[in-house]
Amino acid sequence: MIDVSRLLALDPTRASTGAWLMGAPLKILVTVVPAVVARWLAHRAITKAVAASIAGSEASREKRDHKRALGKPSLVASERYRQRTLTMGSLLRSIATIVIATVSMLTVLALLGIPLAPLLASAGVGGVALGFGAQALVRDYLSGIFMILEDQYGVGDFIDTGEAVGTVEEVTLRVTRLRDLDGVVWHVRNGEIIRIGNRSQGWSTVMVDLPFSYGEDVDRVIGIITDAVSRMKDDGHWSEVLRETPSVLGVETITAGTVTVRVFATCTPNENWGIQREIRRRVKEAFDREGIAGPPVSPGGTGQHRV
Fold it and tell me: Is 7 helix (H, G, I), strand (E, B) or coil?
């Protein structure tokens, strides 16, 4: 049997090499390998948590839709929650990687005998300089993180950012992408958004002004409008999106030869535009049947037209 210690004693170079290999390299290996394993475990745990959260949300949504007997699932709300959860999972994985890599790197440098105090001081100065130079980018990411955490808006919401108004198509930590009513796609940096007007979070409102001739009986006209809009709750399609029966608030304005009655209702998000058009269509048909005259035409025209 070979005596390793005796061989090393006979060969000083081999002895010094073996001592070196059993020193810093082994310690570095013992530091790096657990770090890689820790990163893998952290990413795996975060990925599983994200998948479980999305699956739980899907199950809850299907259960709610089944109880409400809705004909279609709330795909917009589901996609919004899914993208928000995936973004948070990506953020958590990045944070885990940065923390584990930083701790491992500092530990390896200490094992190599490199003084950390000057290095940390230089890194601090460099970080401050980078912060001043890339403060817009840092502001974008911080704004995106808080926006996602606070759930200010998500995919499918109709929002007003001040510069652009439209439907949100994608939300990332740095940029929000939305499409306006003209089909234009806007890419808005999160750090540039000072205030947000969310028109579709939870539910939307429907407000329709219906003008008619000043000579008509107001009570009769209000009765006709009430009968026309109340039938929408009996319609299979509109009953799914209306949260309540549209109500006639009464006379809103009286101008030269025109009386305007306002109708109000609440509905599911982003369905207000279609409901407004449907209310106008039904009321117009009712006015035609009952012979209700519309407001006077603009100067240059003759007679009256119907709504």
Answer: helix
pTM of the predicted model as reported, rounded to 2 decimal places: 0.58
| 248 strand-pairing partners | 263
CA distance from start to end of the chain: 108
- Over residues 83-108, mean pLDDT: 83
**Looking at the predicted structure, is the pLDDT value of residue 22 above 60?**
no
CA–CA gap between residue 118 and residue 135 (Å, rounded)? 25
| CA atoms of 218 and 181, how far apart (whole Å) | 36
Which has the closest alpha carbon to 165: 182, 142, 189, 150? 182
The C-alpha atoms of residue 198 and residue 154 are separated, in whole angstroms, by: 10
Ordered DSSP codes for 215-280: TS-HHHHHHHHHHHHHGGGGSHHHHHHBSS--EEEEEEEEETTEEEEEEEEEESTT-HHHHHHHHH
pLDDT at 73: 43
56 DSSP β-pair partners: none
Measured CA angle at 112 (ends 108, 117), to 5 deg: 80
Over range 51-59, report the average pLDDT: 79
Please state whether beta strands 185-189 and 197-198 pair in parallel, antiparallel, or not at all (unpaired).
unpaired
